[in-house]
Design goal:
Length: 180
Amino acid sequence: MKHVCVYCGSSDAVAQKYVDEAIKLGEALAKRGATLVYGGGNVGLMGKVALAAQARGAKVIGVIPQRLVEREHVHRGCDELIITQTMRERKAIMDEKSDAFIALAGGFGTLDETMEAITIRQLGFHQKPIVFLNTDGFYDLLLAFFEKLYAEGFAGRRFAPLYQVANTVEEALDLALNEA
Ligand code: AMP
């Protein structure tokens, strides 16, 4: 069974379209028989994707540092809940347990996690799919900035295939699960 790690925002102050997409992703992931690996909280899109996935029968693995148990309203109903000491440990476990990564819309934390997945893939530590779910063009500016990295020589354009961009939930899962 494939384990899909979803990185996404912890903010609840976001437009409904992002919430809807998170729910859709959770449901679709469950429908495809995948297990969700995520940050273990009940806040923001994190909570939405996890509850939607579980409601449709997916197994959900939450990984959260002890310090954030309160702040991110840990989801005690996770099928597997791993409490770590540090943020780094959290990321490492999320990475280890996953076969693919999907970045839903999010803030600095989401960017940090997704960038790390890309950079360690760039260095050859893994070959797992990394997919930006570009809800309503959310990642357009970041993707344009990546073009600047290539144009100015800070990253080789050969690295562009390290990540993929999906415009819909189904497309994101096709790419993540290698079913495209
Ligand atoms: P955000 O996208 O900022 O709303 O954060 C999404 C999730 O990423 C939250 O669960 C944060 O706790 C988490 N996060 C933020 N920074 C880091 C980091 N350096 N390493 C691991 N997780 C992080």
